[in-house]
Amino acid sequence: MSDEQAHSAEAATVMTAADIDRALTRIAHEIVEAHRGTDGLVILGIPRRGVPLARRLGEKLTAIDPGFDPVTALGALDITMYRDDLRTSGARTPEPTQLPAAGVDGTTVVLVDDVLYSGRTIRAALDALADCGRPQAVRLAVLVDRGHRELPIRADHVGKNLPTSRNERVTVRLAEIDGLPAEQEQVVIIR
Amino acid sequence: MKHLLATEGLAYDDALAILDTAEEMAAVSSREVKKLPTLRGRTVVNLFYEDSTRTRVSFEAAAKRLSADVVNFSAKGSSVSKGESLKDTVQTLDAMGADAIVIRHSASGSAAQLAASDWSEAAVVNAGDGAHEHPTQALLDALTLRRGWYSGHSATGSPRGTDLAGMKVLIVGDIVHSRVARSNVWLLRTLGAEVHFAAPATLLPYGVVSWPVIVHYSLDEALEAAPDAVMMLRVQAERMGGVFFPTAAEYTRRWGLTDERLARTQAMILHPGPMNRGVEISAAAADSPQAKILDQVAHGVAVRMAVLHLLLTGEH
Amino acid sequence: MSTTYLITGARPYGEDPQDVLIEGGRIAEIGPDIGHRAAPQLTDDAVIIDGSGLVLLPGMVDLHVHLREPGREDAETVETGSRAAAAGGFTAVHAMANSSPVADTAGVVEQVHRLGLDSGWTEVYPVGAITRGLGGTVLAELGAMADSSAQVRMFSDDGHCVNNAQLMRRALEYVKTIGGFVAQHAQDAHLTGWDTEHVAQMNEGKVSATLGLPGWPSVAEEAIIARDVLLADYTGARLHICHVSTAGSVEIIRWAKQRGIQVTAEVTPHHLMLTDDLVKSYNPVYKVNPPLRTEADTLALREALAEGIIDCVGTDHAPHPDQAKECEWAQAAMGMTGLETALPVVQHAMVETGLISWRRFAEITSVRPSDIYGHDHQGRPLAAGEPANLILVDPSVTTTVRPEDHATKGRNSPFRGLELPGQVRHTFLGGHQVLAQGELTSSRTGRTAR
User: Fold this and answer.
1) What is the pLDDT of residue B76?
2) Beta-carbon neighbour count of residue B2 at 10 Å?
3) Is the model's pLDDT at A1 over the cut of 50?
4) Given a cut of 80, is residue A8 above it in pLDDT?
5) Nearest C-alpha in C relative to B79
6) What subunits make at least 3 CB pairs under 8 angstroms with B?
7) Mean pLDDT, residues A29-37
8) C212:B182 CB<8 A
9) Per-residue confidence (pLDDT) for residue B315, from 0 to 100
10) In a domain, A15, yes or no
11) What span, in angstroms and rounded, lies between the C-alpha atoms of C85 and C57?
12) Cβ of A106 under 8 Å from any chain B Cβ?
């Protein structure tokens, strides 16, 4: 959606840059607490916006536990080829999948995405992950949960629960993807 | 993109999308589960009017890695007089529910005709039509060239999104009969490479003067231009000797990548295969670390997966 | 008793309006105010045709058609080809010899001639083969064909070139002996990969290089024409060059004519208009022999036709069944239909470009081809006493070419879908109206088109 369209529609900021950062900090603490540390933990971002969010989570995890090494425990998991709407949505070029060199077998994988909605992306991610190895456990962290699930999927860690209606759009604007200054990052809801 | 018929006219963005997708497909080949569910329930027909086990197997592997059902239809020697027409065959395949038809044919233009016809709704992939084009071969060549070129030429440090701007590629040999050469010329030019030919005039198309290439009659002179890659084309010396050039030995002396010439170039060496060792390429050249010939084969599957994915997913 | 026709206000050669009275198969009178005088005296069964806005021309004469009969009646018959000729404004056509069996004996040419007479939509003159079976090795029974009831005067292996120079020399000499002429399909066999797996598929040049189709180089035509004009000079025989397609050929023919060599030449409508760019579609409807050439060639051919270096238009009407064109390019048959699009194409390429007048149009489509063959009743002046082989053309209408509406069996028109000017409205064959208001009526022998 272009800026022009965003302005013409009614857009409301529901999270500021500071809100996003605080949410990620809280999720990092939750992950460490739930996992009882960071040993055997792998953080995988789902392209595109899950990838920078995962990287930031990794930084926060290292801050909490210097034993967490982003080089070996951080990656990306592309789900393009596993989508269930390939016949109807436009063909896309897949984004890179980058897994830790040691693989994911026996690890606890935390999948990271920006918005949890129907749950179909996560379904695809679970299938993609299964083709890459056999983790001991898989968790899900999302910045925003906007509801309206179409599959039996729930997030373990949520930055913000955001009640929406189906005809609203939730957009996460991040510096790395959307090319804007860090302080202008935000989550907007467009009616 | 509905069909892939030629690299002539293939848009820069589409070419890069295929190469970038192929990079991710190549990664799948190194996983434990070398399969993607992308084309589950779709049918890919390999319609081969010409024997080419290598190309057919490559397309078959690509389709299967994407979970498509594959039907191989070998229809060698078909013509109106000698059996079922292309039209009838294609209509039959269409009735069987083909989503994509990969066609290999000795007649130039057969893939384009199929795509332009109302014989089938299927996406058409040209797997080589006469001396016209062989676009997936050129794409796998480009993927191979990019792997050897991106370092130092990529802003991101990865091959993704990188083109071949500034690269010098020399194509040597039987260009007039080569669909590989034709597909490479257009794709390499689209990707920004400079294309050189080295061949006797008998093996160059009469209209080559209108092509965006630099033509050398002497391979030695062409090598002096310091190409970054040399692509040797197969020469059927036994059939062509005495007709297009005097003898195989004379061809090798003038246009073969001999040990002596190998010593004078640092270029990557490509060959679409199958090779005639000792004719257009010496054994030492074929087996040298500069040779990327096996990489080309591996990249073939990745490129064909990328093409099938991009043609068969999305709304048309 | 033949019908009497009064055509009022038509413009002979596109010039000042005249009335024309046709009686007994001939032009009885032609002049500015015959209508007023003649009308009251006309009998009830006389037909009056309003010719205002129409151009009156001599019926066109085509030295080059393929009627496919005997042997390929699925592609065309003498009957359907004759209807196409009448609809296209041709009052005489010359049927090439590549039928099956080949027209290389008195028996076959008499059969074709008889089929033409029985049909009665146009005059059909069989062309005799030069060599037996078009094989290019031994002379056919040229004298027997000349002496037959078909009285063949034109001999051609069209579709095949007489490549053997010695045989060509003998053919020229022998045909001179019997008062005929040789029409050569100029195509060097070796330069065009004849009978090899790399047989030429299209003009050799920029487009063929890209498409990867074996090229048919212009020099393969020019080399044969150069050889043959020298042979015609040496033997003192008459030579006609079929379907000239290159600018280089024009220069050789110009040179030959300047030297006084007895050479004549024809060009097809498609070579005046279409170029090898069309082959990029790989649609076999554009596959023809000689192939479509470049734009420079079409322009040179137009100039040469206007100037008289090329004498006439010959359609090379070559109908094929659909399956011969609905296949791979390399396997498709060569040839295009042409009888029913000739006038619109020539009007478009020659008249509307200002290169020629309608008077010159009559020369290149009627007078010259009749002279070349030696007809005494076709290609005649529009004057009282002359045989009424006439057409009335509406040059102002534009129509979209629809091969499905054509009288020929062939649907392989390269002009499909194009909007072209000019329409043949009426055709008179020896005073009998075979085409009225653009619709076939009945043939001279009483046949109807349905």
Assistant:
1) 67
2) 12
3) no
4) no
5) C331
6) A, C
7) 95
8) yes
9) 58
10) no
11) 15
12) no
How far apart, in whole angstroms, are the C-alpha atoms of residue B17 and residue B11? 10
Domain-embedded: residue C20: no
Which residues of chain B make contact with C321, given a CB cutoff of 8 A? none
User: Is there a domain that residue C352 lies in?
Assistant: yes
- The answer to whether residue A30 sits within a structural domain is yes
Contacts (Cβ under 8 Å, ≥6 apart) of B143: B19, B22, B23, B26, B299, B302, B303
Residue carrying structure tokens 């489509």: C365
Q: How many domains does chain C have?
A: 1
Confidence of residue B82 (pLDDT cuts 50, 70, 90): low
Residue B37 and residue A82: Cβ atoms within 8 Å? yes
Interface check C209 vs B, CB under 8 A: yes
Contact residues, chain B to chain C, C-beta under 8 Å:
8, 79-80, 85-87, 105-110, 112-113, 116, 129-133, 179, 182, 205-208, 210-211
Q: Which residues of chain C are within 8 Å of residue B86 when distances are taken between CB atoms?
A: 327-328
Determine the residue of chain B that is closest to C323 in CA distance: B80
- Comparing CB atoms, the residue among B182, B207, B211 nearest residue C205 is B207
What would you report as the CA-atom Rg of chain C, rounded to the nearest whole angstrom? 21
Cβ separation C330–B130 shorter than 8 A: yes
Residues in chain C: 450
What are the tokens at A123? 């379904």
Q: Closest to A86 (Cβ–Cβ): which among B27, B31, B313? A: B313
The tens digit of pLDDT for each residue in C357-368 reads 999 999 999 999
pLDDT-derived band at C82 (thresholds 50, 70, 90) equals: very high
Distance, in Å, from the CA atom of A146 to the CA atom of A155, rounded to the nearest integer, reads 11
Q: Which of B86, B208, B210 sits opposite C328 (nearest CB)?
A: B86
Give the CA count within 13 Å in the CB-facing half-sphere of A101: 4
- The alpha-carbon gap from C387 to the nearest alpha carbon of chain B, in Å, equals 47
Chains that touch A (3 or more CB pairs under 8 A): B
**B172-223: per-residue pLDDT in tens?**
999 999 999 999 999 999 999 999 999 999 999 998 999 999 999 999 999 9
pLDDT higher than threshold 80 for residue A4: no
Would you tell me how many other CB atoms lie within 10 Å of the CB of residue C198? 14
- Domain of residue A68 covers 20-164
Q: Which of A91, A132, A133 sits opposite B313 (nearest CB)?
A: A91
In terms of CA atoms, which chain B residue is nearest residue C330? B107
Res C1: pLDDT: 52
Which chain A residue shows the shortest CA-CA distance from B305? A81
State the residue range of the domain holding C78. Answer: 59-373
Number of domains observed in the structure of chain A: 1
Mean pLDDT, range B219-241, rounded to an integer: 92
CATH number of residue A42's parent domain: 3.40.50.2020
Find the DSSP H helices in chain B. 12-28, 53-65, 86-95, 110-116, 135-149, 179-190, 219-224, 237-240, 248-255, 259-262, 283-287, 293-312
Residue C404 lies in a domain: no
- For residue A176, being part of any structural domain is answered with no
**Domains in chain B, CATH or no CATH each:** 12-133+298-312 (3.40.50.1370), 135-296 (3.40.50.1370)
| pLDDT, tens digit, 9 for 90 and up, residues C114-149 | 999 999 999 999 999 999 999 999 999 999 999 999
User: Is the minimum CB–CB distance between A132 and chain B shorter than 8 Å?
Assistant: yes
Q: Under an 8 A CB cutoff, do A94 and B21 touch?
A: yes
Token pair 């529910």 is found at B97
Q: Measured between alpha carbons, how far is A177 from C447 in angstroms, rounded to an integer?
A: 80
Nearest-Cα distance to chain A for B4, in Å, is 14
Q: Is residue C381 part of a domain?
A: no
Domain of C88, CATH number, reads: 3.20.20.140
Residue B132 has pLDDT above 90, yes or no: yes
Is the CB of A94 inside 8 Å of chain B's CB atoms? yes
Report the distance separating Cα C123 and Cα C363, nearest Å: 19
Domain-embedded: residue A138: yes
